[in-house]
Amino acid sequence: MRLTLAATTVPLAALAAALPVVERQFTSQDPAFTLSEDQLASFLVCPGATPDTVTNPILLVPGTGSTGEDSFGQGYSKLVPELGFQPCTTSPPNDMLGDIQENAEYVAYAINRLASAAGKPIKLLGWSQGNLATQWALTFYPSTRSNVDGFVSLAGDFAGVAVANIGLGAPAIIQQGSGSNFIAALKAGGGDKVWVPTTSIRSQTDEVVQPTSSSILPGAVNVRIQDYCPLKIVLHATQLHDGFVYGVAKQALLSPTGQADPALIEPICDGDAPGLTLADTLKTETATEDAVLAIVGNLLLTQFQEPPLQPFAAAALAASLA
Questions:
Q1: pLDDT (tens digit, 9 = 90+) per residue, 181-240?
Q2: Cystine design at 164: which of 14, 19, 20, 177 (Cβ 3.0–4.6 Å)?
Q3: Annotated catalytic residue: which of 203, 215, 236, 290?
């Protein structure tokens, strides 16, 4: 998940002054990918199938310092087939620690390719930064929106996180600071609201996403676990195997509206998702610790300045500040 120094990013006012004022036409069509199709395709995996043969896929998008296998291999990749879905993951290079703008290209590409193969809109489920990259893709690659009919966010940080405001680290860490240009550009582009039916699940005891209000998206079904299970402690990675969280996600994924219905959420507060073994739970619960190890292991990615915004995002931010 994430780390930024407000002092090391370009001040928003200065950025606005340096860029041309444009109308918000940047949302009318997809910008060109900066990565090649071969690059984008090489990290899209559908176990037991191929991206071109799936008929009812769900795209699983991992968090910072993680891969699709790390985040979901012993959790949702085992659970969603019981709901009739074929799990596919996109795992951008460097464990999602690179520029989130590029991570979002992998997501946008995967959405459109899987929907094309299935001949219908698909479901999305993300954890941690995976939700932020997904929201960026939905915001700035508008072709993706008609190809998604349901998005479940586990521990999303749509408004950034305070712990990331230290101003150094891998690109994705700096960008997740609540004061980053990346977060400001996402908001400027309209990414501070839903584009598709969305269910966002958060925990008051999440040790990473603080403030937990960062998980809230206007227009989404926003579910705070402790509103249903007041004494339940759910940490950042616990959402990947928790039984209550899975119940909400299951309802959302199977709902004809693409969202969970708060009136139908059952306060089943004990246990893990049915079908997961103790070994699955223990492995999945280490996702946050594994992410920290990945961050430490990728120290060569450390920067002291936020990556520059891509032109379409910079234009969106400039327009919002004009």
A1: 999 999 999 999 999 999 999 999 999 999 999 999 999 999 999 999 999 999 999 999
A2: 177
A3: 236
Q: Is the pLDDT of residue 24 over 70?
A: no
Q: Is-catalytic flag, 236?
A: yes
Q: Identify the H or E element spanning 150.
A: strand 148-154
Active site residue 241: no
**55-110 per-position pLDDT tens digit:** 999 999 999 999 999 999 999 999 999 999 999 999 999 999 999 999 999 999 99
Give residue for tokens 């606005």: 16
pTM of the model: 0.89
Q: How far is CA 48 from the centre of its chain?
A: 24
* Catalytic residue chosen out of the listed positions 128, 153, 178, 200: 128
Q: What is the DSSP string of 60-105?
A: EE--TT--HHHHHTTTHHHHGGGGT-EEEEE--TGGGTS-HHHHHH
Closest CA to 126 of 150, 87, 152: 152
Q: Is 66 a catalytic residue?
A: no
Q: What is the rounded CA–CA span in Å between residue 140 and residue 155?
A: 22
Determine how β-strand 44-45 pairs with β-strand 86-90: antiparallel
